[in-house]
Amino acid sequence: MGADDSVAVSTGMSAVDYVVLIGLLGGSLFIGVYHAIFRKQKSTADYLVGGRSMPLLPTAISLLASYISAILILGVPAEFSYHGSALWEAMYSNIIAFPLVAYIFVPTFYRLKLTSAYEYLELRFDNYLIRLLASLTFAMQSMLYLGVVVFAPSIALHTVSGFPYWVSMVSIGLIGTFYTAIGGLRAVVWTDVLQGVLMLGGLVAIIAIGAFRIGGLSEAFRISGEHGRLDFLNFDPNPFLRHTTLICVIGGIFNTTATFGCHQTSVQRYCSTSTLKSAVWTMLLNIPLLTLMVSLGWIAGAVVFANYAECDPVLTGHIKNKDAIVPYFVLRYFSGTPGLVGLFVASLVSASLSSVSSLLNSMAAVVWQDFFSQLSYFSKKDEQAQLNITKALGFTFGFMMIGLGFLVSNMSGLIQTTFTLVGAIQGPLLGVFLIALFVPWANKYGAVVGMLCGHALSIWITYGALNLTAKPPYLPLSDQNCANEPWFESAYGTNKTISGHFPGARYTYTPVSPVQPDIEWPDKLYTISYMYYGALSCCVTMVIGFVISTLTACLVNTKPDVKLLHPLVWRFVVTEDEKKEKSNYGIKPKLDGPRDEKCNCSSYTLSSEL
């Protein structure tokens, strides 16, 4: 998207708005500087996992803030306004996905006390290559996602103030990079708490002011329903539809499990808490927290749409990017109160910074632990030198992130772009972790081949989908009531005509998104719902990994270390003789036991009774 893709409106931000924005952003910088000066990190472990002593509630909020970002505030209301509410039903999957994460991933990773989640794969398969592939997968997904996160608030800043996109992206990238690199995980967690409060405040303000203008929330939902925006409980099994209840729930389970279960940012959060119980509750608390925040985004979408239901700003030419509808709404109706626009922009930028800081910190952890620390030149350096290298990595990734912001600016829609990137790249990662935990005979051959095949499928489908010229069609839009809008008359005059035709309207327009044409095979494959990308690539990884591991079992003679398997399968791999002899498996695991230097994991033994 170029600099002309949305039209700046109204009078822009006032001096008070800029003061509010700068003041709130200064708070984030202050937290980073405070932890760099007064809470100095003494080691890379202190810098990357907060000394494994982070409190429960701030950690849970930080985990939430790491993933919702500005995409929630901009993308979700835009999705509702132009495509309807169907995607909200992905929230049903939270009830299944988060308990799965708490039961499958949290106990295993917490007990191992690893800095990098992907170190587990090397321990499990006794192979560095699979760890390397997983780390590269994480790095690739994180950098692309960061590009989306940095680009999102630039839409709002351009709309409300006319800032060039590149100025916004560079500014946000530099601020997030600075306080993350100098403050470490503690700075990231506490700034996430502040930024989470600002995000909540921004959404509530949109809902309150928008609902007041149209006569309440019930009126907003009535208008949305009349215009076909409320779409629930559609159980059509057709996988080529964009969103249905089944697609959202099934795709949501895989995407959420992958994101919160084996993604480095999540693992780093729940492993930074002081006890296993806190780690589990960090995950479970995100069921109500995430559902609440995302639902507020959809409610904000209903309110914004209801205000523009009869005079859509895309049709009138006020904006040409659907993701600009929220900042356009804010500027139109918030500008009468000094400082309110600045508060909204601050909440939006804070949402972006929360994800930027979390992912930069996680990427520094992975690259240090999985790459640099494996080289004797770096591993022999003292703690302070290692800490300085880790901080330098944070700065490096920050600059790369800014460059990728320009790349993703050409993709279509924040919501679809985000789910596409996360699902396509993270699906194979989830698959390889699941076979590692639940298939005792899974080996390095199956893991490597399965993961490569999963990635090949993801790349093939994603590339084909991005090359299709057809884009998701908009639901019906209207400009029938524009003649009664004073702001429309003042902007365009009484004789303004937009090319095209809209039956029954005073003004005419060019349809912004034609009905999507039927696509023939084999291109039809590329139209499968993007919500299924993660599920497909995960299943391919698991099936191929299972088959290859079975066929090559004779080539691997070593028995897997049972403490690297999930407790559910212990009873199938521990013999009665081993239990009687009280060998390596006879006692209940000690959750906070001393670390075994040889295997770099917690020293404990296991029992099939758990």
UniProtKB/TrEMBL annotation:
Entry's transmembrane regions: 18-37, 57-78, 90-112, 132-157, 163-185, 197-215, 240-262, 283-306, 340-368, 389-408, 414-438, 445-466, 530-556
Q: Which UniProt keywords apply?
A: Cell membrane, Glycoprotein, Ion transport, Membrane, Sodium, Sodium transport, Transmembrane, Transmembrane helix, Transport
**Location of the protein in the cell:** Cell membrane
* Record's catalysed reaction(s): iodide(out) + 2 Na(+)(out) = iodide(in) + 2 Na(+)(in)
Instruction: Give the record's membrane topology.
Output: Multi-pass membrane protein
Q: Which family does it belong to?
A: Belongs to the sodium:solute symporter (SSF) (TC 2.A.21) family.
Q: What is this protein called?
A: Sodium-dependent multivitamin transporter
Source species, please?
A: Cloeon dipterum
